[in-house]
């Protein structure tokens, strides 16, 4: 029963974390899907259109990754598959965070490219990726290492 309780807590924690990211990802995806219907979309250069396309695809991939654990659970909830659900949900959440970091960075590249030029877009996009890597990767890795000692 101890293992089942741990798995239940892990699953509940995972779902709560996914709720936080799902809202932002879905808003971002919805926003990106409306952009082509604005007047200024026609002013984008070919490279900017490609950056936009990459951001939209990234947003859809991110959405699929952060919603997948819910679909897994819905299809398998009576199958006693909680160990698999927790492991697969964790992998999807981690991949979803990576996809989210890449997508948000692509959106920043596009926005700053349109407003300030391509160099500004690249600098801001790279800075965002570095920030995500630091906060979502390096800091937890360092703290985890310290905690294990």
From TrEMBL:
It comes from the Bacteria. The keyword Transmembrane applies. This is Sodium:proton antiporter. The chain crosses the membrane at residues 20-38, 50-72, 93-116, 122-143. Keywords: Membrane, Transmembrane, Transmembrane helix. It comes from Nocardioides dubius. Coiled coil: none annotated. InterPro entries: DUF6328.
